[in-house]
Write a structure and sequence with these properties.
This protein has about 140 residues and is of the alpha+beta class. It has a single domain, classed as Pantoate--beta-alanine Ligase, Chain: A,domain 2 (2-Layer Sandwich). The chain is about 40% helix and about 30% strand. The protein has two helices and four strands; from the N terminus they run ααββββ. Strand 3 and strand 4 form a beta hairpin.
């Protein structure tokens, strides 16, 4: 009885013949040539969107700070104000306006608008609040 060695068995011969054909290799390379540039472009767009979102978040913080400072110091009643401020390396242009609220003459709408540039485009963020006009007393309409 003759024992077959591992190198001479039909199973081992089939394992040696299992490989990728030239057509399979070329198809895989073509697939990668299409997928890789699309993936890189998607990552680039995601990075740009992330930068705009980060700057928009910083602009909201600036608008909130300007609105709160103006309410505390009652600077909002001095008409339209504007200026430039920075948060870290970023610079923001802001405008603070107040106008009469149409539903109640004793109230005013105070708006802080912050403008900034990102990726070559201009963006703006606005925050509004209602405040009582200076010198106007409010009446509590609820029953005790």
């Amino acid at each position: 009885m003759k024992l077959a060695t591992l190198g001479n068995s039909p199973r081992a011969a089939r394992r040696r013949c299992q490989a990728f054909t030239l057509a399979e290799v070329l198809a895989a390379m073509l697939f990668l040539a299409i997928v890789i540039p699309a993936a890189v472009e998607a990552m680039h767009l995601a990075s740009l969107a992330g930068e705009v979102a980060a700057r928009k978040g910083a602009a909201v913080r600036v608008a909130d700070r300007i609105l709160n400072e103006s309410l505390v110091t009652t600077n909002w009643s001095n008409g339209t104000q504007s200026g430039t401020t920075s948060e870290g390396p970023l610079e923001f242009r802001w405008t603070l306006t107040s106008q009469s609220w149409p539903q109640d003459s004793a109230m005013e709408t105070v708006t802080a608008e912050v403008k900034f540039s990102a990726q070559g485009r201009d963006y703006a963020v606005k925050l509004n609040t209602l405040v009582a006009q200076p010198g106007v007393t409010t009446v509590n309409l609820t029953k005790p």
